[in-house]
Design a protein that fits this description.
The chain is of the alpha/beta class. It is about 45% helix and about 20% strand.
């Protein structure tokens, strides 16, 4: 397969990093594969739904980052991995998994992927999507209520109790580990063009 290019895309919740990731994947199609930190939330089969609702999902300890690191190393070596699937509606890891195949470009997406130096070391390019906090909370409300069957109150409470403080404690400081900071993510057409050109160059060299 030749050298695999690994691109990390981080940013706060609702920043537009998923839009950016999906646009890149749609443009390059089979040349790109995606792994998301969110799918590596730890399983909590031992807890009730109510207990799972109260967990802090924005702290680094909420993720099985060890497994993600192992999978990313295997993908870089050209091996397929069995990736977990997270079910947001029940706040728990699904019983199902999905086979993720390696590709010439691997996109790694998540709010805290630049917080762990071991993950950073596995990425060739690190992009941080920087978006105003007001816009991020509005997007988060729209997404969680419409797509994840959450109540408005629960989304606001979660934002104030864990999302905002964890963003300030972990996500924002991890921005210093980025090579590129992109305001507005996938809506930034100039940045999008630059990223596409970088990937195009890699694919031509291969």
């Amino acid at each position: 397969m030749g050298k695999i290019l690994v691109i990390g895309i981080a940013g706060g919740s609702g920043s537009g990093k998923t839009t950016l990731t999906n646009q890149i994947a749609a443009h390059f199609q089979e040349s790109v594969t995606i792994i998301k930190h969110d799918d590596y939330y730890k399983a909590h089969d031992d807890l009730t739904y109510e207990e799972r609702c109260r967990l802090n999902y924005d702290h680094p300890n909420a993720f099985d980052t060890e497994l993600m690191i192992r999978h990313l190393k295997e993908l870089r070596q050209g091996k397929a991995v069995e990736c977990p699937i997270y079910d947001y509606t029940v706040h728990n890891r699904s019983k199902n998994t999905v086979i993720v195949n390696p590709a010439k470009v691997i996109l790694v997406e998540g709010i805290l992927i630049f917080e762990d130096p071991r993950l950073c070391e596995l990425m060739d390019i690190r992009i941080f999507v920087d978006t105003d906090a007001d816009l991020r909370i509005i997007r988060r409300i729209q997404r969680d209520v419409m797509e994840r069957a959450r109540s408005l109150d629960s989304v606001i409470n979660q934002y104030l109790s864990t999302v905002k403080p964890m963003h300030e404690q972990f996500v924002e400081p991890s921005k210093k580990n980025a090579n590129i900071i992109v305001p507005e993510g996938g809506y930034n057409k100039v940045a999008m063009e630059m990223i596409r050109n970088q990937i195009d160059r890699h694919l031509r060299e291969e």
